[in-house]
Specification:
3 domains, GMP Synthetase, Chain A, domain 3
């Protein structure tokens, strides 16, 4: 993001590879403070932006290893408060002259730490407290660095938290960003508000106002934008933001690729074109997509085909419009992270995303991505601020390639129609049982296998549907939702009664990691 008033008071998060780094950022932003994440060896630009405070994340490495990752000297020369979390505490301790060694036993999961005296970070009232926290470490600080004092201890870590109040440097061995650390949000709030002096500027209202101003400056007074509108929360928020920013200079293109949810096309046109007065062009392109996907089974190849054809159709439509030079997309920050789009380029590619990995090498339109640095929960809060319909804001995420990545193997029009019906039944039953908003994402998958079944008195050999429902905070990690058996039986019964040939329904109980949320 470019510099602006609401971003002036920022926190820099130095990433050492922790699975919780994105969660730290979500917590800080939830406290009304803008923050950025930069890799430990690629953060010079972020340091030049003069952050109010720095957080050193956890990480999978050991500071006792040769060539262990460490923060650059410029971090400690910045003269701002520092909070080291887990590995971040250990690297802070060693950098400051302390000693870290491998603990006799790994400490993972729930633990209690006891504060030792008062500290602004943990115990501002001055009373000794017992804190419920989440630990995940194999090393621990054995020798206190000069200038620091112990502010908390645990049974397995006599030095569980440290503080150098003169320099405002703090280290904690546990993870305040996870919900299992019950007082974690208060600790982070004290760090960013009291210790770093940050105000609550990163609010939905300010973000909307700031984003609209940025869009107007980026696009200019004459620029025209074309947006791919899917009906999901991301593209919907982008549409509302752009409509506020540039009015009728926005043209939305809704591409019906044959891989959307049941009746989605009609719903999109009704919500945006008829109710909101936003210009929407509907393109019926299902035949083109199915022809391009014929016989293609590799998931990454399917994603690239869908992404490239999607952009190709945009280009074709833009050529028919007057002076369109911008293509808007609903890319959000987790898309960029999972596609190795972080600044260092060091993240492993788990899967490419439609908005990130599907772009042709040479695209005739410039990109505008107003949500690129926002998490999903921030996008939803902005949607509320903009007045989007509640059903749209809280609709479960839907992948850019649509049902194409929920049909492992080759995709056909017939398989898409079958899955579309199954998915609609699943979602309808979730609403009827008041379970839809109890899970973060739910959908059906058409498996590339068949199984034997009995329909009436006859043997059948038909498709298998897998149901997937997860609970998650940030979509970087997720747990399968423990839906009631009676509910799952009802869904299974409906699918096999209402959809011809389905022989079996199964439920996916995998967590992320090691599985991903989507099947492809």
């Amino acid at each position: 993001m470019t510099s602006s008033n609401i971003q002036a008071q920022r926190i820099l998060i130095i990433d050492f590879g922790s699975q919780y780094t994105q969660l730290i950022a979500r917590r800080i932003r939830g406290l009304g403070v803008f923050c950025e994440i930069w890799p430990y060896d690629h953060c010079a630009q972020a340091l030049a932006a003069c952050p109010r405070g720095i957080i050193l994340s956890g990480g999978p490495e050991s500071v006792t290893a040769v060539d262990a990752p460490g923060a650059p000297d410029a971090v400690f020369a910045q003269g701002v408060p520092i909070l080291g979390i887990c590995y971040g505490m250990q690297t802070l301790a060693t950098r400051s002259g302390g000693q870290v060694s491998t603990a006799t036993r790994h400490e993972y999961g729930y633990a209690q730490v006891h504060t030792t005296g008062s500290s602004v970070l943990l115990a501002p009232a001055g009373d000794d407290l017992s804190l419920d926290v989440w630990m995940s470490h194999g090393d621990r600080v054995e020798q206190l660095p000069p200038g620091f004092r112990v502010i908390a201890r645990s049974d397995n870590a006599p030095i569980a938290a440290i503080a150098d109040e003169k320099r405002q440097w703090y280290g904690i061995q546990f993870h305040p960003e996870v919900t299992q650390t019950q007082q974690g949000e208060s600790m982070l709030a004290r760090f960013v508000h009291q210790i770093c002096g940050c105000d609550r500027l990163w609010t939905p209202g300010n973000i909307v106002q700031n984003t609209i101003a940025q869009l107007q400056a980026q696009i200019g007074p004459q620029g025209r934008v074309v947006l791919g509108l899917s009906g999901g929360v991301d593209s919907s928020v982008v549409a509302f933001l752009l409509h506020r920013a540039i009015g009728d200079r926005l043209t939305c293109i809704f591409v019906d690729n044959g891989l959307l949810r049941l009746h989605e096309g009609d719903q999109v046109m009704d919500t945006f074109a008829q109710q909101q007065g936003i210009r929407v062009i509907r393109v019926n392109a299902a035949a083109r997509f199915f022809a391009a996907l014929a016989g293609i089974a590799d998931p990454e190849q399917k994603r690239r085909i869908i992404g490239n054809l999607f952009i190709q159709i945009f280009a074709e439509q833009a050529e028919q419009l007057t002076n369109v030079t911008w293509l808007a997309q609903g890319t959000i920050y987790p898309d960029v992270i999972e596609s190795a789009g972080a600044a260092s380029g060091k993240a492993h590619v788990i899967k490419s995303h439609h908005n990130v990995g599907g772009l042709p090498e040479q695209m005739p339109l410039q990109l505008v991505e107003p949500l690129r640095d926002l998490f999903k929960d921030e996008v939803r809060r902005i949607g509320v601020e903009l007045g989007l319909p509640e059903a749209m804001i809280w609709r479960h995420p839907f992948p850019g390639p649509g049902l194409g990545v929920r049909i492992p193997g080759a995709v056909t029009a017939e398989s898409a129609d079958l899955l579309r019906q199954a998915d609609a039944i699943f979602i309808e039953e979730l609403h009827l049982a008041d379970l839809y908003h109890e899970v973060s994402q739910a959908f059906a998958v058409l498996l590339p296998v068949k199984s034997v079944g009995v329909v009436g008195d006859a043997r059948c050999y038909g498709p298998v549907i897998a149901l997937r429902a997860v609970k998650t905070i940030d979509f970087m990690t997720a747990e399968s939702a423990q839906l009631p058996y009676a509910f799952l039986e009802q869904v299974s019964r409906r699918m096999m009664n209402e959809i011809a040939d389905i022989s079996r329904v199964v439920y996916d109980i995998s967590s992320k990691p090691p599985a991903t949320i989507e099947w492809e």
